[in-house]
Structure formats: C-alpha cells, structure tokens
Amino acid sequence: MKIPVYNKEGKEVGKTLLPKEVFELRVNPDLVHQVVVSQMANKRQGIAHTKDRSEVRGGGRKPWRQKGTGRARVGSIRSPLWRGGGVTFGPRKEKVFKKIIPKKMRKRALLMVLSAKAENNFLVLLDKLELDKPKTKIVSEILDKLPCKKESTLITLPRYDKNIVLAVRNIPGVSIQEARNLNALGILSFKYLMMPKETIKIIKEMFTK
Q1: Orientation angle between helical segments 197-207 and 103-119, nearest 10 degrees
Q2: Nearest Cα residue to 3 out of 114, 177, 143, 119
Q3: What's the longest Cα–Cα distance across the chain?
Q4: Is the pLDDT reported for residue 209 higher than 80?
Q5: Which residues of 30-68 are buried (b: 16+ CB within 10 A; e: fewer)?
Q6: CB 63 within 8 Å of CB 74
Q7: pLDDT tens digits along 132-179
Q8: Which of 64, 79, 96 marks a domain boundary?
Q9: Three-class secondary structure of residue 62 per DSSP
Q10: pLDDT tens sequence across 49-87
Q11: Which of 96, 116, 133 is the last residue of a domain?
C-alpha cells in the first residue's frame, strides 16, 4: 500500500510504501473490541463508594427495648431499612475492574487498528515534524493545510519532543503520543492519525518482533 507524504505546507512531496506487516492486516472486530474494552476497564477508577451499616455514623444504642412497646424490634437506627442508614449492595471502592489481556493480543489489535486507519485514508504522513520553538500557532497552521484539518487528530512522534508537546497541548481535539506508547484505544479515540515518516520505522521495530 502506498500513501502520499506531505510537507509542512500541506503539499504532496512523494509517496511511501507502508510495511504490510503493520498496515495490511485483516481486521478482526471481535479481537479489537475485546482489547479496547479491557483498556477502558483498566483506566477505570473505583470512585463510587457507599457506606454499609457498620460505617455510618451513630446508631450505637438500641432505639427502644426489645419487647412491650408494640413496635417492631430494631437494633440500630442505622439499619438499611431506616432513613440515613447504611446502603445494601451499593457500589464499593474496593471493586477491581482490571482485565488482563495477553501481550500478543494487544499488539495484534494495535496493528489491526493501524491497518484500518491506512485503508480508510485516515493516516496522514509528514516528511518531518520539527519545531525550533514551542508555538501553538505554527502547529495549528500545519494542521489546517493537511487533510486532517478541523478533525480530531492523534499526532504520533518517533520520540519525545518537548517543543511539539508544548505546542500541541492547547489545540482542541488534538493529542500527542510517542510511538512506543501507542495502543488500540488511543488511536480509535481520534478520527485521524498523523505521524512523521520516521515513526513508521519505530512502530515496525517495536510491535512486529
């Protein structure tokens, strides 16, 4: 598969041949779904928490004697049956949502998602992406000249570049990530995937061994 390569001015300066072991895989929707669900679950934090009757403040004394009052027997005003009492079967912060997926499955799903982006023309390649200073305006102008303008875009760098990271962080709908940290969920969260040509070599070395 050959796709066009653009420069910072948005002009096509050539074409590059994508490695078939990365960008020409047949997509298995079930595998991708399984991996994405696991990654979403692993990001989930158990914040919701309700108190049971042992944690609610008060209720240490028996409200009234057991017999002779004509009322139902009760041991604590913090019973789940009472207003202000504990909660039965409510969400607890001890719950673990983590799902374990084999490393080979995660890599395979990532390559499938990359293949889908290339097949559907949502992969944008640049000859190079370098900045002398961290200016958001410069990156914004570059994006406006490319097919991914005004669309959600994930920029993938071959290595960490402080100037680019600082320049991109204030652009709505645009995020940045190093090639070594790519995952299926991160790519699917954006419509376009943009990267310098050099990034392809890093992805091939890291995820096709």
Answers
A1: 150
A2: 119
A3: 94
A4: no
A5: ebbebbbebbeeeeeeeeeeeeebeebeebeeeeeeeee
A6: yes
A7: 899 999 999 999 999 988 899 999 999 999 999 999 999 999 999 999
A8: 96
A9: coil
A10: 999 999 999 888 999 999 999 999 999 999 999 999 999
A11: 96
Which residues lie closer than 8 Å to 167 by C-beta, 6 or more apart? 131, 134, 135, 136, 138, 139
For residue 63, what are the domain limits? 47-96
Q: Based on the domain organization, do 114 and 183 belong to the same domain?
A: yes
| Number of other CB atoms surrounding residue 158 within 10 Å | 18
Hunting for tokens 């912060």 — which residue is that?
Answer: 93
DSSP 120-145: TT-EEEES----SS--HHHHHHHHHT
Closest C-alpha among 199, 190, 133 to residue 164: 133
Contact indicator for 155, 131 with CB cutoff of 8 Å: no
Residue 6 backbone dihedrals phi, psi, to 5 degrees = -110, 155
Q: 88, 66, 89: which is closest to 78 by C-alpha?
A: 88
Which candidate, 180, 42, 171, 186, places its Cα nearest to that of 117? 186
CATH of the domain at 21: 3.40.1370.10
List, for residues 31-50, the tens digit of each pLDDT value: 999 999 999 999 988 889 99
Tell me, yes or no, whether 110 and 141 share the same domain.
yes
In this prediction the pTM is 0.82
Work out the number of other CB atoms within 10 angstroms of the CB of residue 141: 13
